[in-house]
Design a protein that fits this description.
alpha+beta
Length: 68
């Protein structure tokens, strides 16, 4: 099953990945903060991910890895 991995130590919670996702299944986790004080991105519906990699391409900090 395809999925994305977010390096939460690097993620700055900019939300560009969520905006780039054509399926709208990525969101910022407003319930927690990473070590830098940002809300990290997370895949909300992993079973719907098609590994298009739009999120990884948009991430300015290369915090997202896509696994097929």
């Amino acid at each position: 099953m395809p999925r994305i991995l977010v390096d939460e130590a690097v993620c700055k919670g900019c939300g560009l990945c969520a905006n780039a996702c054509p399926l709208h299944i990525i969101a910022l986790d407003t319930g927690r903060l990473n070590s830098k004080g940002y809300h990290p991105a997370q895949l909300m519906e992993p079973d719907k991910c098609v590994a298009c990699a739009a999120c990884a391409a948009m991430c300015p900090d290369t915090a997202i890895t896509v696994e097929k």
